[in-house]
Specification:
The chain is of the alpha/beta class. It has four domains: 47-175, no CATH class; 184-305 and 351-400, 3-Layer(aba) Sandwich (Rossmann fold); 308-350, no CATH class; 406-494, no CATH class. It contains 18 helices and 15 strands. It has helices at residues 2-25, 28-45, 65-78, 151-173, 213-227, 230-236, 254-265, 280-289, 301-304, 307-312, 315-331, 335-340, 355-363, 387-390, 406-417, 425-434, 439-446, 455-537; strands spanning 48-54, 56-57, 62-63, 85-89, 97-101, 106-111, 114-125, 137-147, 177-181, 195-199, 241-247, 268-271, 294-298, 373-379, 397-400. Strands 10-9-12-13-14-11-15 form a seven-stranded mixed β-sheet. Strands 1-8-7-6 form a four-stranded antiparallel β-sheet, covered by helices on one side. Strand 12 (268-271), helix 8 and strand 13 (294-298) form a beta-alpha-beta unit. The model is unreliable at 317-322, 334-342 and 344-348 (pLDDT under 50). Keywords: Hydrolase, Magnesium. This is AAA+ ATPase domain-containing protein. Its cofactor is Mg(2+). One of its GO terms (biological process) is response to stress. Residues 309-333, 516-541 are annotated as: Disordered.
């Protein structure tokens, strides 16, 4: 028995040595030719065809819609037969779950009496990028296997059936998400993605948004027209997207408006933080990773990056910045390394997104990737934005989020206090016309904070707050008027001083002129005296 084991071992070693020598010394083109013929021989005895659906298409820029749709379809049919499943909760506060095929799993499906086999595979390749945290490049795919005699049925009917059912399942199980972009330095980490998300379940809607009714209805009609306008946008030759600019003081409901728009259309939200984006190229990659039926948001865009300053910065500012960086490199040996990695002097990664890159993100060629996207900018100071950024065509609709009006107050009273009318409403209406108060401040005064205080107490709190705000506004106006008067008095005093100085100067010049004239007259008199003496001393003729 031991001799048999030794013979087996020696035979295996000889075969492995022979195979190694064959691979090393046999001509490459001949080995490829033999491999090709071997595959043809295997195919002759293997009567099945395989169709592969990879997760990514092209240069790994976008996920294949076919892959995602097939994944939804297989998740529905694999829960009862697959041995290994992955679990994804539909909602955080819901017991229902969504099961999906795990990697390297197989399931069988029957279509018109024909058995079809699906398998899930994953290929892991070493990352080609240079990083402190190298991660493997994972590529997943689904493979459909069926007998060759059913080729026509599968290619013409079954695949279309799978895609149709997968889209219907996705629509039923759709979980809306709130995304935020990861810092670009984390993209190369293991299993890292460009966007992170959480379940989006915000209760805000147009019914709870404090705004004038007419403006609100106009926005809703505009959103409905956009969501149903795929054919219209194709006909006019424009990408299926629309831009909204929300501007107004803090507390006027800009963020609430964004949520209401997303809830109204049942869209996802992508909250884009520009300061974590390294350059324009990464900004494009983030855009490509967004999905259709989404709202892409840049809040407080006037504070995100100094985009306007990049266009207006002079040579002195650039020279000063270069000198600071040069001095930092001399003092800190790591400064040069950080600079090469795209980091600033503080060690944080410095964003090099330009105004041009952001404009291309909004309505450039790359903005046409995908469709049915809404882009929303919000700002407290619209005058600080570059006109090129907010012109019509980029920001199609400008919405001013203003102070609370009486219509908005009545909606807040109905939502917060369940009141349609009250005797104090008239007084509040007059105060709202005379005083500026944001909807957020009005809502805070209307909120019931204890059980022992009723709606009337909240209304009186609001009246008191409005009266205080009115007094503060009048005091500010009086202070501004006093400041203007002080400036006018100061200017008058300066004018009087200037007039007195001018008069003194004129007087001084007049005295100087008189003195000069007296001096000239004295000189003349002396000259005339000398001439008279000369005439008297001369002999008579």
């Amino acid at each position: 028995m031991e001799l048999f084991g030794i013979n087996i071992g020696s035979t295996m070693a000889a075969l492995m040595l022979g195979w190694t020598m064959f691979q090393q010394f046999f001509p490459y083109h001949l080995s490829r030719l033999l491999e090709l013929y071997a595959l043809k021989m295997a195919a002759f005895f293997y009567p099945y065809i395989q169709i592969t659906f990879p997760e990514f298409t092209g240069d790994r820029l976008t996920r294949s819609e076919a892959y995602i749709t097939i994944q939804n379809y297989l998740a529905a049919i694999s829960s009862a037969t697959a041995r290994r499943l992955k679990v994804d909760f539909v909602k955080e506060n819901n017991d229902s779950v969504l099961l999906a095929m795990d990697d390297y799993e197989e399931v069988t499906n029957v279509f018109h009496g024909v058995k079809v086999k699906w398998s899930s595979t994953k290929t892991v390749r070493p990352s080609q990028s240079v990083s402190f945290y190298p991660a493997a490049d994972e590529r997943r795919s689904f493979t459909l296997t069926v007998h060759s005699r059913h080729r026509e049925l599968v290619t013409s009917g079954y695949i279309a059936h799978v895609l149709k059912e997968g889209k219907a399942i996705a629509s039923r199980n759709r979980l809306r998400k709130l995304y935020t972009n990861n810092s670009s330095c984390e993209w190369s980490l293991c299993n890292a993605t460009k966007w992170s998300h959480v379940a989006f379940d915000h209760p805000a809607s147009f019914d709870t948004l404090a705004m004038a009714t007419g403006l609100k209805e106009g926005i809703k009609k505009d959103l409905v027209k956009f969501s149903q306008g795929k054919d219209y946008y194709n006909r006019i030759g424009k990408p299926w997207k629309r831009g909204y600019l929300l501007y107004g003081p803090p507390g006027t409901g800009k963020s609430t408006m964004i949520v209401a728009m997303a809830n109204f259309l049942n869209y996802d939200i992508y909250d884009l933080e520009l300061t974590t984006v390294r350059d324009n190229s990464e900004l494009r990659k983030l855009l490509i990773e967004t999905t259709s039926k989404s709202v892409i948001v840049i809040e407080d865009i006037d504070c995100s990056l100094d985009l306007t300053g990049q266009r207006k910065k002079g040579t002195n500012g650039e020279k000063s910045k270069q000198e600071d960086e040069a001095n930092a490199e001399e003092k800190d040996p790591l400064a040069r390394i950080r600079k090469g990695m795209g980091m600033g002097m503080t060690g944080t990664r410095e964003s090099k997104v330009t105004l041009s890159g952001l404009l291309n993100f909004i309505d450039g060629i790359w903005s046409a990737c995908g469709g049915e996207r809404i882009i929303v900018f919000s700002t407290n100071y619209i005058d600080s934005l570059d006109p090129a950024l907010i012109r019509r065509g980029r920001m199609d609709m400008h919405i001013e989020m203003s102070y609370c009006c009486f219509q908005a107050f009545k909606l807040l009273a109905r939502n917060y206090l369940n009141l349609e009318s009250h005797e104090l409403f008239g007084e509040i209406e007059v105060l709202l016309e005379e005083t500026k108060m944001t909807p957020a401040d009005v809502a805070e005064n209307l909120m019931l904070k204890s059980d022992d205080k009723g709606p009337e107490s909240c209304l009186r709190n609001l009246i008191e707050a409005l009266e205080v705000a009115k007094l503060e506004e009048e005091a500010a106006k009086l202070k501004a008027k006093n400041s203007d008067l002080e400036q006018m008095v100061a200017k008058l005093e300066e004018a009087v001083k200037l007039e007195e100085a001018t008069a003194k100067l004129k007087a001084m010049k007049s005295e100087e002129n008189v003195a000069k004239l007296d001096s000239k007259l004295q000189v003349k008199e002396e000259e005339m005296g000398e001439d008279g003496e000369k005439c008297a001393a001369a002999p008579a003729p």
